[in-house]
Amino acid sequence: MSSNPKIMKKNERHRKLLDAIRQNPFITDEELAEILQVSIPTVRLDRMELAIPEVRKRTREMASQFFGVSQSLANREIVGELIEIEPGKKGLSFLDTDRSMCLEKCNIVRGHIIFAMANTLANAVAAAQVAVTGKAELDFLRTVRAGEKLIAKAQILEKRGHRFFIEVIVRCKEEIVCKGTFVIHGMSLEMAHYLKLLKDED
């Protein structure tokens, strides 16, 4: 019995699609279409056949099951979606950019949005009840346009007393958007209260 070349081709495409999503859960249909050399509608049909949700739903599912909890920030305070965190070690967040984040006259995402993504992830990674940014040194290496998806990775390089030295790298696809280091001061709630850093309770 001879095999059907069309079915074999489709099976191979499905395998490559699954491999690509396993390697990068944030990959878009456009990027998959480029890798597989097919149209975007074909990618969407393949995903439907394989019961794979689109990238936004995959991201939400990952965020709802993320590993670990930040001691210093609530999820709503993170710029982007917190995907994984190990306080005192490392963290990962995702940001799906849109037009509301752009400069008024062009399609470029504001730098302070990207900075805030990196900064809040660094604060979240610090193993402290309250985390305050003491110093930040970042290099911006490329612009980001609305619709591009960013992944930020934070890694604690060193801890000296109450200070955390944290490297953060933000990427779009395989390109580095910005990278740098933060010095985060960690403290207890008691110390933050003594320094009058906490909000007054109603």
UniProtKB/TrEMBL annotation:
One of its GO terms (biological process) is negative regulation of DNA-templated transcription. CDD domains: hot_dog. It comes from the Bacteria. GO terms for molecular function: DNA binding; DNA-binding transcription factor activity. Signal peptide: none annotated. Keywords: DNA-binding, Fatty acid biosynthesis, Fatty acid metabolism, Lipid biosynthesis, Lipid metabolism, Repressor, Transcription, Transcription regulation. Residues 115-178 form the Thioesterase domain. InterPro entries: HotDog_dom_sf, Thioestr_dom, Transcription_factor_FapR, WH-like_DNA-bd_sf, WH_DNA-bd_sf. This is Acyl-coenzyme A thioesterase PaaI-like protein. It comes from Hydrogenispora ethanolica.
